[in-house]
Amino acid sequence: MLTVENLSKRYPNGLLALSGIELRVRPGEILGVVGGSGCGKSTLLRVLSGLEPPTAGRVTLNGTDIASPREEIGFVFQEPRLMPWLSIRDNVAFGIRHLPKTEQTARVDEALQRVGLADFARCWPRELSGGMAQRAALARALVGRPSVLLLDEPFSALDALTRYDLQDHLLELWSYERPTMVLVTHDIEEALVLSDRVVVMQPGPGRIQTVATPALPRPRERTDPLFEDWKHRLLGELSRSFRDHRRGEEAFPAAAI
Amino acid sequence: MTATERLYEPTADALPSLAGGPRRRPGLGRAVGLIVPAVLALGWEAAVATGWGDGRLLPPPSRVLATLYALYASGDLVTHVLATLWRVGAGFLCGVLAGTLLGALTGYLTVARRLFDPTLQALRSIPSIAWVPLFILWFGIFETSKVILIAVGVFFPIYLALSGAIMDVDRKLVEVGRMFRLSGPQLVWRVLLPATLPSYVLALRAGLGLGWMFVVAAEFMGASEGLGFLLVDGQMTGNPATILAAILGFAVLGKITDGLLAAASRPLLRWQDGFKTEA
Ligand SMILES: Nc1ncnc2c1ncn2[C@@H]1O[C@H](COP(=O)(O)OP(=O)(O)OP(=O)(O)O)[C@@H](O)[C@H]1O
Ligand SMILES: [Mg+2]
Q1: Structural domain count, chain B
Q2: Any idea what the CATH number is for the domain that residue A172 is in?
Q3: What is the pTM for the complete model shown?
């Protein structure tokens, strides 16, 4: 269980990026996080990963505090962030160098197979397309068999077709070990296709506005009228969050934040 | 979802050239660079031979080569070359060690940077040759002062490039290292070192070039052997062929040592994705 209690995060420059976040993510759950630009989605994920310390509140995984990056937490960034001097195979193996050689080889082979890059193991990162590079980054994060996978707008730099493909692919990858996933996205459809629950965030300072539980059968179909229905509901929530935010700004000018 | 649905996914058949992994480019066309010097040398040779040019101040290649051969036959050439090579080698090694150590330290640790960088930058603005009188007073006229002068010349490009390159390493890649819980030394070895390698290799080559420059200055300040001594000797005895022979020696040695350095680093830099990546 991944729990967030009364979490606030203030950056050293004084900006309050998150305030009073409460969350409980069940093992194996896929949690979507949507919200406008700058409402603290990346900050939340970075605190969950242990890359940023919280200013107040607690973040725990199975009862122990997340104070720094941990083996059982994987992270997929918006960009692939592959090491350009390593082959795809060595990039995927980057995080499991402490394992025995045979175990490494077996796991990397399996991960490359699963993301469909087995034929590209010996290529340099510069020889891959954006979607392939992001699949390699997924393989790198999953090869250590994390129980929690954090994804920060992992597909937002890709074209729509590749994005659809990778969304399906992500579900397939999830189905092997069923890690808990927290997926930040600004794409409501993406959140609805993937998530069990969707957190809608509100800016200034970043808070949770609502948590929606889309009652949609899996596999989710983008063309399902119910899907369209949920999309509109979430869109409504999102635009409400912005309206509230703007009204808030009128009441408290920016300096008060 | 089935594999056939992923239509755009390339297969090994569709991309046969990639299936074998990273490719090497054939080393064609290198010989082109020899055309210009060859034409110039032969032209001057012919001009002097036909009496059209005067070979006294600028002797033709044949006479330079003859001088070189005479030096070789008497065993002097080997002595001079070895003396110069030893000085460059020792000075380069000291300069590289000091430059790497301080460059890595100041690039990696902010404290070290605050502590050392201002002093080193101030020292850098002094033309290195200006140290010569002091070095001679301190270390005498023999090998020590020469090696130290060369080391000083080699030090700065390496120090500057390495500390700058470390500070410029992509923060995002360092973060990946943090996410995988790399320790300090692991981060240096697995992220910082490979990321800075291209700039470091360039700095080594620049430093080596300066090493060759400073060995001439060092040998000018009093030496009884070495290619620099040969230069002075040719001037004193009014023998331009000797001077040119020494210059030729410098050119060949400089090119060979730089080529060795480049060749040694090339396999480590094949991943680079630059405009016309070529070492
Ligand atoms: N390192 C930092 N130092 C100071 N302020 C920061 C830092 N990173 C983010 N912020 C601020 O915190 C707020 C939230 O940023 P964050 O990156 O979490 O937003 P986001 O929801 O991920 O936005 P986007 O959708 O554009 O990625 C923003 O106002 C931003 O300016
Ligand atoms: Mg973000």
Answers
A1: 1
A2: 3.40.50.300
A3: 0.81
